[in-house]
Amino acid sequence: MFRKLITLGVSNDSIFTVDIADGRVERVYADTGSHPDGVQIADGVAYWTTMGTPSVRPGLTGEAALDYSARNGGVHSIRVDGTDRRDLTAPGEVTTGKQLTMADAWLYWGDREGHRVTRARPDGSDREDLVVNPPGIDNQCVGVAVDTARGYLYWTQKGPAKGGTGRILRAPLERTVGRSPENRTDIEVLWEKLPEPIDLEIVDGLLYWTDRGAPPNGNTLNRAPLPAPGEGGSGPEILADGFDEAIGLAVDPEAGTAYVSDLAGHIYTVPLPQHPSGIGHMPQKHLLADLGMYITGLAAVAD
Q1: Cα(77)–Cα(86) distance, integer angstroms
Q2: 266-271 and 257-262: which strand pairing?
Q3: Contact in structure between 80 and 45 (CB atoms under 8 Å)
């Protein structure tokens, strides 16, 4: 069972822990680099991505004014005791680092404005792109999850904000010989026309995801069975709604609980029903912590 959560303060470049028992928040690191987004922790080391420093588009306000197209994001690590801080990618190797996951001694991450999904060893070595899309807002990669048992990579392409063109896709972890990441022919679109899917997790044959798009199907926590090869995804079950820009996700199957962070700074617990509950019988989410600032990714610190 999870003991603590780890999350990122996107506006103050900080890493926080949140105690699951009482919601107590502690800042444990305050120099992540610009705009941290995805986070994982393993073997006493915290790993995170950064989106980099955006430029400002004239005449626009809020998030729409931020242009992240410069290649100044990254992937980083530090021991939980605050020592051995490392940049795992060199300048110019990542455009906009998004969700980060670890599987079979690899780090995987989405690169939104880089239109790609990449992996590397935990020390940054052996970096390789697995998928590279053509430029375009509908081709920006955000969330990532890995099914090592079946050998598949899953990722989200959220599309424009509240655009209703989001997709969840899948491809084998290992590319066909002779195929580059730019010309793969083995990519499956499992779900499409989603409000704005963000982060992913795979647990017990189910795919969970957050969606920060427009209600009623957006700003939700969703799940659906992993489709068989060659099949599309079934209609998702909405487990909770009413988030304020749902982002991060951590699922604890032993406790029967999911944790969701939203951009407004809230972290919620969501009880997981044993059977599909349907939109009319959603479990009630509960506020665990309010950090009072913009936050992004979420991961678990297990016992």
Answers
A1: 5
A2: antiparallel
A3: yes
Asked if 251 contacts 199 with a C-beta cutoff of 8 angstroms, the reply is no
* Other beta carbons less than 10 A from residue 143's beta carbon: 27
CB 111 within 8 A of CB 96: yes
Name residue 224's beta-bridge partners: 207
Mean pLDDT of the chain: 95
Retrieve residue 128's tokens.
């390789």
CA torsion 286-291-293-298 (nearest 10°) is: -70
Question: Peptide bond before 216: cis, by omega within 30 degrees of 0?
Answer: yes
Burial class (CB in 10 A: 0-12, 13-18, 19+), 288: buried
For 261-290, what is each residue's pLDDT tens digit?
A: 999 999 999 999 875 544 456 778 999 999
What pLDDT, in 10s, does the model give residues 60-82?
Answer: 888 889 999 999 999 999 998 88
Question: How far apart, in whole angstroms, are the C-alpha atoms of residue 220 and residue 146?
Answer: 22
Predicted local distance difference test score (pLDDT) of residue 279: 47
Give buried/exposed letters for 90-113 (b at 16+ CB in 10 A, else e): eeebbbbbbbbbbbeebbbbbbbb
Give me the residue label for tokens 């807002």.
137
Contact 263, 212 (CB under 8 A): yes
Please give the Cα distance from 287 to 183 (Å, whole number): 44
Tokens encoding 193: 């026309």
- Cα-atom radius of gyration of the chain, to the nearest Å? 18
3-state secondary structure of 95: coil
C-alpha closest to that of 70 among 56, 87, 84:
56
Write down the H helix ranges in 122-264.
Answer: none
CB count within 10 Å of CB 86 equals 14
What does the alpha-carbon distance between residue 99 and residue 73 come to, in Å, rounded to a whole number? 13
pLDDT in tens, 200-249: 999 999 999 999 999 999 999 999 999 999 999 999 999 999 999 999 99
